[in-house]
Design a protein that fits this description.
The protein is mainly alpha-helical and about 675 residues long. The protein is about 45% helix and about 5% strand. Helix 4 packs across helix 18 and helix 9 packs across helix 26.
């Protein structure tokens, strides 16, 4: 046995012929291997140095990126880039993932620049009212939603703005009346032929009005010193000039507000709290409650019946513009409230009337908010991006199933939705805004002609115009036609498209229950001007949209283009906001304009972000386990079928309850 020492290792080799030569060859290879090991070691050391240096650099980069200053700059860059892309090519033209990212950046920008407080800094607020439970229950007037700022979002506080205050000055005469709101109504709004929104049913229009009565009102208009609207020489209106009542002034203004644009009061609670059912005052709430088992009143025929005298006196905003569509949803969600009370009493027999009412109100309000967010909105904004985005507001991009199975995966509203996240006012006290009110003036949704069918036979029961189903006449319809047939008929009819020349003629000459005759289209134009809402081109610029500088950019409809040019004397910058919104070509699948959508992008999520009952207090401790399950399991379809199961055949296979229902036989 020959032993060769190489690299400090004794390796025995077998003795054989030529063994000496083999040994020498093996020694040479061993020395080469040793040299390779040294090279490898150096390479390893260098690699370790590089990796270590990279790790230190990465650690330092993370520290920098986590610094508030760097995060702020990166966010600003992202937001600016999103706005630039949107102005350049428009978010609707992008692939869905990119469009979602751009819209997120646009919303961030709007949150930073387009939430404006109209309250006077340091103004005295007084002492909030005393209620027995302000921690886990909604108050009648909306106070104490924010426990540190109890008046924020309460009834009787000011509307905010979505544009800078210095852009909200009311125009001076004669600009305020140029062109005449009545001329705008007749020349640009009048419906000569009904243009339907074929992807929707009439419940979508009724639902929007039902929601508006929860969110806002400027209160009862004052009859003194009305606006005097000039008429064209051939106008047949019954008086000249036309009178439009002024908006009630803000009673909270003081000397500290001198030299600032006019402000106005929201008489309703702007929270998503079901105040159209429960009221925005303690007195109203007391009148709708039965005092037994938490329930609220409903007629003996299971319909909500407003007092005819109240309709005439217009004592509550909920009754303004009362019609069959409102009757349906007021009735449905009164029934739903009482059904929730029954379920809660079954599960929690020790609860008294107040506990049952307060919990049922929370649950019912959350169902309404959910339906609006993930059903109504996705119906009227039928773009694929919005199908994802609106559901993400509620459940996050993780989706409904993941959220229901595992709860929140992240504190991020993008991942796990706004529901159950941290409350966020984005640095500005919560309110709804005058611009929000303006873009929701969507009266073209209302058809002039209404047909009611039997859900059992498909035969026509009645054909009426809108005036005949409004005010006191609404009660006659509901008394003579079964509510199941009314819902069925609304499920079959289309609303109108929100475009020019589609304003219902019945609303251009509408008689209120108190006998006042009004042109609601002229009223809509006048209100925007009165309340200091910027005109269309300026409005777009302030919302970071691509500027519109020509009538060709305003609309692709050549006939409308020339009509608008004539009415506005060839001055694109004087075009009223509503005219521009109705003339603009909306994105594919949209039921209204992209310009109006910007206010929606900003405010739809804000109503949830700012409300602790949808954020930090959206918990089983506040709502109850039964309540949270009830909300999770409820859609408009399940609510309808819970109370009117005979509607099931018409809803079978309908993916969205605001889309047209299935007809029974031939419809005439």
């Amino acid at each position: 046995m020959i032993v060769i020492l190489a690299a400090d290792t004794a390796i025995p080799l077998p003795r054989c012929a030529g063994g000496s030569n083999i040994a020498m060859q093996f020694r040479a290879r061993s020395l080469e291997a040793n040299a390779w090991d040294e090279d490898t070691a150096m390479k390893v050391l260098k690699t370790i140095g590089i990796v270590g240096g990279g790790a230190l650099a990465a650690f330092a980069a993370v520290k920098v990126l986590r610094s508030p200053r760097c995060k702020r700059r990166l966010a600003e860059l992202y937001n600016r880039t999103s706005v630039a892309i949107d102005q350049g090519v428009g978010w609707p033209s992008l692939p869905v993932p990119l469009a979602l990212g751009v819209l997120a950046g646009v919303r961030n920008t709007l949150r930073e620049t387009n939430l404006v407080d109209t309250n006077t800094p340091g103004a005295a607020t007084g002492t909030p009212p005393a209620y027995p439970n302000v921690v886990t229950a909604r108050t009648p007037d909306g106070t104490f939603n924010d426990l540190k700022c109890p008046f924020m979002g309460s009834a009787g506080t000011r509307f905010g703005r979505n544009v800078p205050l210095n852009e909200t000055w009311q125009e001076k005469q004669p600009d305020l009346m140029t062109p005449s709101p009545r001329v705008v109504s007749l020349e640009l709004m009048t419906r000569n032929e009904f243009t339907p929104a074929t992807t929707l049913n009439l419940l979508a229009a009724a639902w929007l009005q039902f929601q508006i009565r929860d969110w806002f009102s400027h209160g009862k208009s004052i009859k003194e010193d009305s606006w005097q609207v000039p008429l064209a020489p051939n106008d047949t209106w019954h008086e000249n000039p036309m009178r439009i009542l002024r908006t009630a002034p803000d009673p909270t203004r003081t000397a500290a507000d001198d030299g600032t644009p006019l402000t106005y009061i929201n008489t309703e609670t702007p929270w998503w709290d079901g105040s159209q059912l429960y009221g925005s005052t303690a007195d109203y709430q007391a009148k709708v409650r039965t005092g037994v088992d938490g329930k609220i009143f409903i007629g003996k025929d299971h319909l909500v019946h407003p007092d005819p005298n109240a309709l005439v006196q217009v004592q509550s905003f909920a009754l303004v513009g009362w019609w069959v569509g409102l009757e349906l949803f007021y009735t449905l969600f009164t029934l739903e409230h009482n059904a929730i009370c029954d379920r809660l009493k079954q599960e929690y027999p020790e609860w008294g009337d107040n506990d049952l009412f307060e919990h049922a109100r929370l649950i019912n309000g959350a169902i309404i908010a959910k339906i609006h967010t993930v059903e109504w909105t996705t119906a009227i904004l039928g773009h694929p991006v919005l199908q994802i985005a609106m559901r993400a507001n509620w459940w996050g991009l993780a989706g409904e199933r993941i959220k229901n199975l595992f709860g929140r995966l992240s504190g991020s509203e993008l991942v796990s939705g706004i529901l159950g996240s941290e409350t966020d006012h984005f640095g500005v006290p919560y309110s709804l805004t005058e611009e929000f009110v303006a873009v929701y003036r969507m009266h073209p949704l209302i058809p002039d002609d209404i047909t009611f069918w039997s859900r059992e036979t498909g035969e026509v029961l009645q054909k009426l115009n809108f005036q005949q189903i409004a005010g006191n006449d609404a009660q006659n319809i509901c008394d003579n036609i079964r509510i199941e047939d009314l819902f069925y008929s609304f499920g079959l009819m289309n609303p109108g498209a929100v475009v020019l020349h589609n304003y219902p003629k019945t609303l251009q000459r509408f008689e209120r229950p108190d006998g006042i005759l009004m042109d609601l289209a002229a009223h809509d134009i006048m209100r925007c001007r009165e309340l200091g809402v910027p005109r269309y081109t300026r409005f777009r610029e302030l919302l970071h949209l691509r500027p519109v500088t020509t009538f060709e950019e305003l609309t692709d409809n050549p006939e409308w283009r020339e009509e608008i040019r004539r009415v506005y004397n060839n001055d694109i910058d004087t075009v009223d906001l509503i005219v521009g919104l109705f003339a603009e070509k909306p994105p594919k699948g949209f039921g209204f304009s992209d310009t109006a959508f910007r206010i929606f992008v900003l405010m739809a999520s804000r109503r949830l972000n700012s409300d602790r009952f949808f954020t930090t207090d959206f918990t089983e401790d506040v709502y109850s386990k039964v309540g949270m399950d009830w909300i999770a399991d409820s859609t408009l379809s399940t609510v309808l079928l819970r109370h009117f199961p005979s509607l099931a055949p018409a809803l079978n296979g309908v993916n969205n309850t605001f889309a047209p229902w299935k007809a029974k036989g031939a419809q005439g």
